[in-house]
């Protein structure tokens, strides 16, 4: 968490993408709530011994550190680095999970510009090792969160690569993905959606 | 990487434990080389599609950020947080791996003070989910790196908890662990040690 001069609070993730106006718009209070609901769900999964999933720390390039002998080191200059992997990973019943949480304020589609090539490459490599990769996509206008498997995302990624549309329509996400209802414990039970999605494949 | 006033270079990890004098002594140039050999090995594993393993970024508590409209955000004040998990995790042939790299300059033993309770708890939780946890322990005086499974570490951890010695002797590590010879490609083939260790269990 960071306090801005204007006193507004944003998750540090905002800052990573702060120079990207499009995404800057896509974050803020709701994005924070979305992220927090994932974090509290992960805490629930861990405390109930259901899964061990953590958010990766935001990678930071440290340039200058004050390093007083008898007190805590203070970072005086650092910059946000582009993450080379994804937001979250961990283990669930012997399965390696790796996923990315994305939010859009769009009404009818999720822009693929929210996803980086290297994240797609990372997920390909993980699935090659029999890991399970997916996306949690938050349509903030409707406050709807969808589970979308990497397999489905890859299809739309390739469509874009072949000159097709640069987004996935909400209709497509509703067809291919699974709506994750907001609950109480856990707040966002995405592991149930994951299980459903694998059952439907069998 | 951070440049200190005295010009000496340390891996940023040092700073995380900078207030811990014992560990501070245990790091430095060699520790950096040890860490780099793990990172280059992970790059080798990834580029040869053998495994997907990454070092977790150092968790940083961001306090103050300069946030100019048209340029990159600059972190002006931040502090190192104690990591809640381990240094590295990833996937290898469908198996979730989670491990910690530790170094000692001791001659005859590895002090368990190098390991935090919460890291042990994290590894317990991961193994409960059928993950594979282990330690890479570098005895810098001999430049020897050992693979030690969490199962073995846990034995010595419990011995300490029951009032026994607060360290693992090098002899014990040589008996229970597997020496990982420094090689060329990869620099530190710890996945071979992992495989050996699991074969020996069968």
CATH level-two architecture of the domain at 65-201 in chain A:
3-Layer(aba) Sandwich
Biggest interface between chains: A-B, 53 and 53 residues
Oligomer: homodimer
Q: Helical residue percent of chain A?
A: 25-40%
Low-confidence stretches of chain A: 1-28
Helices and strands of chain A, in N-to-C order?
EEHHHEEEEEEHEEHEHEH
- Which structural category do the helix and sheet elements of chain A fall into? alpha+beta
CATH topology of the domain at 65-201 in chain A: Trna Endonuclease, Chain: A, domain 1
Terminal CA distance of chain A: 42 Å
Strand content of chain A is 25-35%
Overall body shape of chain A: globular
**Mean of residue pLDDT of chain A?**
86
| Largest pleated sheet of chain A | 6 strands, mixed
Radius of gyration of chain A, taken over Cα atoms and rounded to an integer in Å: 18 Å
The total of beta strands of chain A comes to: 12
Q: Number of helix segments of chain A? A: 7
Strand sequence of the main sheet of chain A, in spatial order?
A: 3-6-7-9-10-12
Subcellular location (chains A, B): Cytoplasm
InterPro entries (chains A, B): Resolv_RecU, Restrct_endonuc-II-like, tRNA_endonuc-like_dom_sf
Keywords (chains A, B): Cytoplasm, DNA damage, DNA recombination, DNA repair, Endonuclease, Hydrolase, Magnesium, Metal-binding, Nuclease
Main location (chains A, B): cytoplasm
């Amino acid at each position: 968490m960071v306090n801005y001069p204007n006193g507004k609070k944003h998750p540090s993730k905002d800052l990573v993408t702060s120079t990207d106006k499009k995404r800057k718009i896509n974050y803020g209070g709701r994005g924070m709530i979305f992220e927090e609901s994932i974090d509290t769900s992960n805490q629930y999964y861990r405390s109930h011994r259901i899964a061990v999933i953590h958010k990766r720390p935001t990678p930071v390039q440290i340039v200058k550190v004050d390093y007083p002998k008898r007190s805590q080191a203070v970072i005086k200059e650092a910059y946000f680095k582009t993450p080379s992997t994804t937001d979250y990973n961990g283990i669930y019943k012997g399965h390696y999970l790796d996923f990315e949480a994305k939010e859009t304020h769009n009404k009818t589609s999720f822009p693929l510009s929210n996803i980086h090539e290297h994240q797609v490459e990372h997920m390909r490599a993980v699935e090659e090792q029999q890991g399970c990769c997916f996306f949690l996509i938050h349509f903030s206008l409707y406050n709807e969160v969808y589970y979308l498997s990497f397999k489905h995302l890859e299809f739309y990624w390739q469509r874009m690569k072949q000159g097709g549309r640069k987004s996935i329509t909400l209709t497509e996400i509703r067809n291919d993905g699974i709506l994750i209802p907001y609950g109480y414990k856990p707040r966002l039970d995405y592991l149930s959606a994951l299980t459903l999605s694998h059952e439907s494949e069998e």
